[in-house]
Each structure stands twice: as C-alpha cells, then as structure tokens.
C-alpha cells in the first residue's frame, strides 16, 4: 500500500513550524509499519537541497491560466529521511529559500498543486491514498474530483489534514482561471463566502478530513475563522488524530544539538548542566527557575500576553525567576518582547529569529515551558518539552487540552490554566514557582513526563487504519 503526502513543509528540508515536523516524521513511521510513504513538496533552495544528492525523475509542463511553466520532479537519492522525498521545481516561480510570505504565494502554491496533479497523472500506477496537508494543498482534492484533465485520478482516495484552520488561503474568483478546466456545476465546491477557499474546498472534496487533535475538531465546530458551519456539516467524515513526535530527533540522550546528554536516571544532573550553559550564554542567574517560550510570534500563540505576564510575575516574586523567549513573526510582538528584555534585562532575555539548535538547547535547559495559546490545534512544543523533562504550563485548548493533565488532577504532570489572560498566566507561573520549591517532587514529575509515550507509533497506526477504510 502506498501513500503520497503533499505538503508545503517537511523537516529537515524546509520547516517554518509544526507542519514541517509532522510531515518529516509521520511518513517515516508509516514506512516502518509496512506502508510505502512518499512526500512531495515545493523545491525551495534550502541548505538541504544544496547539501544532498538528487536525481531527476520526471519533467513536465503546466499551465497556470495562460502562462506555461516547465517543471521537474527530483528525488533525494539515498533515502536519508526514511522515505522517498520528491521536490517539485518550477523555475521562474519557486525560487529562493523562502517558504511563505512571497508576493506571489498564490501563484507559487497553485502552480505547485497543478504540477503535482500533472505528475500524478503521468504515473503508471496509482498511489492508494493522496494525503494533503493544510490549505497550500487544499485544491488537490477538488482537482482530482472535478478537473476533466485528471479524470484518471478520481478513484484515488484523498485525506486532508488540518494543522491550522486559521490560514485558509482564500482568493478572489477573478483568479479562477488559474485552475485547469473543471466541471462548472461544481464551482460551489470551491466557494466559501464568495471567495475561492482552498481549506473549505478540501474539507468538502476530500474523502476524509482529520485534525491534529480530537479536542481541536470539537472546537472547530464552534470557532473556525468563518468555517464553523462547514465543520458542523462535514463532522461525520472528520476525525481527530493526535500528532506524535519523532522520538529519535527529540531525544535528550542522543540529541547532537544539546551539550549535555541525559536520560530519566540522570535528568537532574543533565538538565542542570544544560541550564548552566544557557544561563551563562544569556547572562542569567542559574539558581532561579527558568521559564521559556518557543514559537511563532502570532496572536494565536498568545505571545502578546507575555510581556505583561513577565512584568507582573517578576514584581510578585521579587525577581525570583528568569525568562527566555525564542521566536519570530509579527513585528509588533517582536518589539514587545524586545521591550520586555529592555525593561527587565537581568531576568528576561529574548532571541528574535529562528534557531533550531537553540530551541533544542532551551527544551533541555528550562524548568518550565510556557504556552499561553489562544488557539492550538495540537502543539508539539509541550510534547518536546516533556521528553526533555521540562514541565509544561499550558492553556487548556486544542491539543494542549489533550496532552497535558494538571498536577491538581489525578495522574497530573503539568500546569493548566483556562483563560488566555495575563492574570491566568501569572497565576500559573506562581503555581510553578511553588512546585520549584520542592525539588524532590519536581524530579518525580520530570522523570514521569520523560517516560510518557508521545511517539508517532500509535498515531501512525491510526492513520493507517483510516486509510484502510477508504475503498475506491
Ligand atoms: N523561532 C523558532 N526557532 C526554532 N524553532 C522554532 C521557532 N518557532 C517555532 N519553532 C519550532 O516550530 C515547531 C512549532 O510547532 P507547533 O506545533 O507548536 O506550532 P505551529 O503553530 O507552527 O504548527 C501548527 O501545526 C502543528 C502540527 O500539526 C500543530 O501542532 C500546531 O498546533 C499548529 O498550530 C516546534 O518544533 C518549535 O520548536
């Protein structure tokens, strides 16, 4: 059995956030469970492309409205990722190493999807499932069903996974001519609120829809950036499957990105050594508890609440704790975090930018990880943190609700709060400070969370079970 994943990101080729992590790990685990899993993504000029060997497997052409583009499909030669990786090159359109945020994203990702269709159309055999991820691939299920040219592909089951329904990729009907000719009676399948909405089209046209945690699916039926009615209508074909983590990449006993390795037995010593290094680097007092935030600086992640929560926590605790923020995104939020550092520079540091190494070092060094998300479809950071013995402090939303149990509840191992407000965050931090005063209890919790199983094994199995139900 064969599944083809289509995605805009895949770690370590190109990653902006959690989508890259998932598409870099899930196929590897599926492959181990006996399926053939392949990934196709746009060919960005990233380091991975330059440093590894590729071979040409297909050459073709595509029309984006009236414009003709030549494209190549290249495959990584040595199966380095544990599955076949294909990159779709479109010279003159997909250039440079930037994943999102180019002025012509609409054209880049629409052409990518048409390129994937053309390539698939040329295969002598069918994959058993085409699995699309997020709105950049959301037009594919529509094209497979209703574009005359791809009639041959109609029988292939499609699965669409929603990693984040806030981003839907809408564009005006004036650009409908970008798509290959389709059955005009089916134009409604593309539409939501008088716009072409790739996220909505995928929910309508794919055989099954999944979200990256069960709780998030329930939330989408109530609040989904305008699509809640659609989720309510299509609820019966949707399923929440919790993301896993790649326990080989994220392993404090072997992680090449951290200085001091440790396991469940040596966690106290190991974390202390990593914390000392990080605190020296950022000039923080290592005897104080260290709270970190890692993530995209956007409204959904609640990053704007952090500066006030920091000020208030420092004031209430008489400067008895430290913070490090790692993130990039909204320029205003970047400025807010820089300001927090400026005002409280002995206790609060921020690194504005993307740094994969530093993120691993922070998971290893921190005592607590803060996630005050307003929306969190699944969240991977809390699971990485727990694997590194860092206690998560999360807002009970989406996948955070599904993965973190509060220490006040039976079997609890993290700290949860309800509202995305400065008050709730500060209160949660004060509970963490209280816990920090009891090192033996902290150690027990750290050892417990390091042993929780968040690996992909179970979730990959759930996806395979879902694919098996899809009979053409
Ligand atoms: N500045 C920085 N430097 C280094 N590393 C950084 C970084 N900013 C973020 N990261 C890394 O990016 C990843 C973020 O993953 P998340 O799942 O938390 O968020 P994201 O919102 O991108 O993903 C969306 O998709 C995923 C996958 O389905 C869902 O879990 C999530 O809820 C949903 O919003 C982690 O690996 C984190 O370490």
Molecular structure report:
ADP-alpha-D-glucose binds at residue 15. It catalyses: [(1->4)-alpha-D-glucosyl](n) + ADP-alpha-D-glucose = [(1->4)-alpha-D-glucosyl](n+1) + ADP + H(+). InterPro entries: Glyco_trans_1, GS/SS, Starch_synth_cat_dom. Belongs to the glycosyltransferase 1 family. Bacterial/plant glycogen synthase subfamily. Pathway: Glycan biosynthesis; glycogen biosynthesis. Helices cover 36% and strands 20% of the residues. Helix 9 (306-317) runs parallel beside helix 10. The mean pLDDT is 97. It has helices at residues 18-32, 47-51, 105-121, 140-146, 198-205, 214-220, 228-233, 267-282, 306-317, 331-343, 356-365, 381-387, 398-403, 422-436, 439-450, 456-468, and strands spanning 2-6, 36-42, 54-64, 67-76, 84-89, 129-133, 158-162, 191-192, 195-196, 208-211, 238-240, 290-297, 322-329, 348-352, 368-371, 391-395, 415-417. The longest helix is centred in the N-terminal third of the chain and has 17 residues, at 105-121. The chain is of the alpha/beta class and 472 residues long. The protein is globular. The chain has 2 domains: 2-244 and 457-468, Rossmann fold, CATH 3.40.50; 267-453, Glycogen Phosphorylase B (Rossmann fold). The chain starts with a strand and ends with a helix. The strands form 3 sheets. The protein has a 9-stranded mixed β-sheet with strand order 3-4-5-2-1-6-7-10-11, sandwiched between helices. It has a 6-stranded parallel β-sheet with strand order 14-13-12-15-16-17, with helices on both faces. Strands 8-9 form a two-stranded antiparallel ribbon. A hairpin with a 2-residue loop joins strand 3 and strand 4. It has 16 helices and 17 strands. Adenosine-5'-diphosphate-glucose is lined by residues 17-19, 21-22, 163-164, 212, 243, 294-296, 326-328, 354-356, 359, 376-381, 399. Residues 17-19, 21-22, 163-164, 212, 243, 294-296, 326-328, 354-356, 359, 376-381, 399 line the site of adenosine-5'-diphosphate-glucose.
């Amino acid at each position: 059995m064969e599944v083809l994943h289509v995605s805009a990101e895949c770690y370590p080729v190109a990653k902006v956030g959690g989508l890259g992590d998932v598409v870099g790990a899930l196929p590897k685990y599926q492959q181990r469970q006996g399926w053939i899993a392949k990934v196709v993504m746009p060919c960005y000029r990233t380091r991975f492309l330059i440093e590894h060997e590729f071979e040409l497997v297909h050459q073709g052409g595509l029309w984006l409205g009236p414009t003709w583009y030549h494209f190549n499909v290249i495959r990584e030669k040595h199966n380095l990722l544990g599955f076949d990786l294909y990159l779709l090159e479109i010279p003159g359109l997909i250039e440079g190493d930037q994943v999102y945020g180019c002025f012509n994203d609409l054209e880049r990702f629409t052409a990518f999807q048409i390129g994937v269709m053309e390539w698939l159309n040329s295969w002598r055999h069918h994959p058993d499932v085409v699995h699309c991820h997020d709105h950049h691939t959301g037009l594919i299920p529509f094209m497979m069903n209703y574009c005359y040219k791809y009639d041959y592909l109609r029988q292939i089951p499609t699965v669409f996974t929603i990693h984040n329904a806030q981003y839907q990729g809408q564009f005006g009907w004036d650009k409908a001519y970008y798509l290959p000719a389709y059955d005009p009676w089916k134009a409604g399948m593309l539409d939501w609120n008088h716009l072409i909405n790739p996220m909505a089209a995928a929910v309508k046209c794919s055989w099954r829809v999944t979200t990256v945690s069960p709780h998030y699916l329930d939330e989408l039926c109530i609040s989904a950036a305008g699509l809640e009615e659609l989720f309510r209508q299509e609820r019966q074909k949707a399923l929440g499957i919790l993301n896993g983590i790649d326990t080989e990449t994220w392993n404090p006993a072997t992680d090449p990105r951290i200085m001091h390795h440790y396991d469940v037995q040596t966690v106290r010593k190991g974390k202390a050594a990593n914390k000392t290094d990080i605190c020296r680097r950022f000039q923080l007092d290592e005897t104080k508890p260290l709270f970190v935030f890692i993530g995209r600086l956007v409204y959904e992640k609640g990053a704007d609440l952090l500066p006030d929560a920091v000020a208030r926590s420092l004031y209430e605790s008489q400067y008895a704790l430290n913070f490090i923020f790692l993130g990039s995104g909204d320029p205003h939020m970047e400025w807010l975090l820089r300001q927090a550092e400026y005002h409280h520079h002995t206790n609060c540091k921020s690194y504005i930018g993307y740094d994969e190494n530093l993120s691993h070092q922070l998971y290893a060094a921190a005592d607590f990880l803060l996630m005050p998300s307003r929306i969190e479809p699944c969240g991977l950071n809390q699971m990485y943190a727990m694997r590194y013995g860092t206690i998560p402090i999360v807002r009970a939303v989406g996948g955070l609700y599904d993965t973190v149990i509060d220490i006040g509840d039976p079997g609890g191992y993290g700290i949860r709060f309800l509202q995305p407000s400065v008050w709730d965050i500060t209160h949660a931090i004060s509970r963490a400070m209280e816990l920090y005063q009891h090192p033996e209890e902290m150690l027990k919790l750290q050892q417990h969370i390091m042993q929780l199983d968040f690996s992909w094994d179970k979730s990959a199995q759930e996806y395979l079970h879902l694919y098996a139900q899809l009979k053409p």
